[in-house]
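Quick one, tokens below:
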């Protein structure tokens, strides 16, 4: 069982969903992103996603785009992302990289997989890579016991969901809405059917693969709403927005980030599980 799966199992044993928090590496700068992610861990995140800044983020809305662009303009590179992973993974919390595929291909798939494993990373979330086009990554990840987190959406066919869940390890990422991050709010009523389909079509009836729900989650109440059905609640834009709102005051940004994490963690802990 991988570290990510263990974190989900721990949350399940406590009768709650796991809280998964996202920030891009290098925002507001490399050391600042490390401090922010560590603050999120201390305040209650069970799993961390670190974004690899990219110039053409097709899934990300304007909030995450702004943060990623700031990181890119500051000269953040893949090696900085790996340094961030190493620092955050040292806390003991499973730490994954969320990235579009082109930067990994340019870096070298085998090289990236090895460097990620060396940094203590748990695996990779690939929003624009589907399992049927990922043989090189699947082989590299399997050789190093790295998690392979692929995505399903409300528009996914049953065949596509079955293919995706069979290839995923750690958890499967269910997008709560059709659209980019940070623009719409996900609802339990909207995402519950996708969670049910995903579990039903997963190997062993979903017992071996947690379902995390992301895109459109920003408040404790909303996290509680989704945590009634999902194994994990993934939050990204709300964390980024908190730092953007406190630009220029790092201490205030970290305090606000911790407060938001605590609110979200209380939400997933207080949900009545379906």
């Amino acid at each position: 069982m991988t570290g990510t799966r263990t974190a989900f199992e721990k949350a399940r044993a406590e009768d709650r969903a796991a809280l998964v928090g996202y920030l891009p590496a290098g925002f507001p700068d490399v050391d600042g992103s490390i401090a922010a992610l560590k603050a999120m861990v201390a305040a209650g995140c069970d799993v961390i996603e670190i974004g690899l800044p990219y110039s053409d983020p097709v899934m990300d809305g304007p909030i995450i785009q702004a943060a990623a662009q700031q990181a890119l303009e500051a000269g953040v590179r893949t090696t900085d992302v790996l340094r961030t992973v190493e620092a955050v993974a040292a806390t003991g919390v499973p730490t994954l990289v969320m990235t579009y595929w082109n930067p990994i291909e340019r870096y070298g798939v085998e090289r990236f997989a090895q460097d990620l494993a060396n940094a203590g990373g748990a695996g990779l979330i690939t929003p624009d890579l589907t399992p049927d086009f990922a043989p090189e990554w699947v082989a590299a990840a399997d050789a190093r016991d790295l998690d392979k987190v692929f995505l399903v959406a409300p528009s996914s066919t049953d065949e596509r969901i079955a293919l995706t869940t069979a290839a995923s390890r750690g958890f499967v990422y269910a997008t709560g809405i059709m659209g980019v991050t940070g623009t719409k709010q996900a609802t339990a009523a909207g995402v519950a059917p996708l969670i049910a389909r995903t579990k039903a079509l997963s190997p062993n009836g979903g017992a071996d693969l947690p379902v995390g729900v992301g895109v459109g989650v920003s408040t404790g109440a909303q996290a509680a709403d989704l945590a009634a059905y999902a194994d994990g609640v993934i939050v990204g834009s709300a964390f980024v927005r908190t730092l953007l709102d406190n630009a220029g005051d790092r201490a205030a940004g970290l305090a606000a980030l911790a407060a938001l994490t605590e609110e979200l963690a209380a939400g997933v802990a207080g949900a009545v599980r379906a």
